[in-house]
Amino acid sequence: MTRLRPVFSAQEIAQQVDRVAAEITARYREEDGEIVALCVLKGAFVFFADLVRKLDFEPQLDFVRLASYGQATSPGEKVTFSKDMEISVKDKHVLIVEDIVDTGRTLAYLTKVLETRGARSIAICSLIDKRERREVELDVAFSCFQMDKGFVVGFGLDYAERYRQLPGVYEVCEDA
Ligand code: IMP
Ligand code: MG
């Protein structure tokens, strides 16, 4: 049977979103040039919607969806776009908004693509920075929460496409 153990409440998340939105605003407010906030679908959609409404500047918004092939953690894993961006990032500051950074492979790929497309700067904002399985060095400049291990769902995060709608974050516990 699957049990869900509460990890971060809706209220705790809202507080952290406020804090991170203030940090991001401080980082970008004086920046000249266009800023693009880029949501990594599907998992970041709830976080993105809450976060962008708290920013005190006007970013352009866009969405990508990435798919990984091969074994989830194998070094030979390939990442591709299953939905690409619709606006150009050339000479723009890009803020990537992700649900959770785990091995780092997905965002390492996305960052590299944005660099080749001429982004002026790239920063990563993640709801959760999960460090135990990190394989690629990544600078997660903004994060609401850090976690060592565990598999979590809710607030956009899924387990086989379920639980995304939950207002809080829960750990999935499989009972024997
Ligand atoms: P990675 O950083 O390339 O390993 O990929 C991170 C992606 O794996 C995230 O964007 C999620 O879609 C998924 N993922 C990793 N850990 C979790 C978790 O605890 N719950 C739900 N999805 C996760
Ligand atoms: Mg994701």
Any overview of this molecule?
- The protein is an alpha/beta fold.
- Helix content is 22%, strand content 36%.
- The protein has 3 helices and 9 strands, in the order βαβαβββαββββ.
- It has helices spanning 10-28, 45-52, 105-116; strands at 2-8, 35-41, 60-69, 78-83, 93-101, 121-130, 142-147, 152-153, 169-174.
- It has a 6-stranded mixed sheet, sandwiched between helices. It has a 3-stranded antiparallel sheet with strand order 1-9-8.
- α3 links the parallel β5 (93-101) and β6 (121-130).
- It binds inosinic acid (IMP) and magnesium ion (MG).
List descriptors.
176 residues; alpha/beta; six-stranded mixed β-sheet; three-stranded antiparallel β-sheet; globular
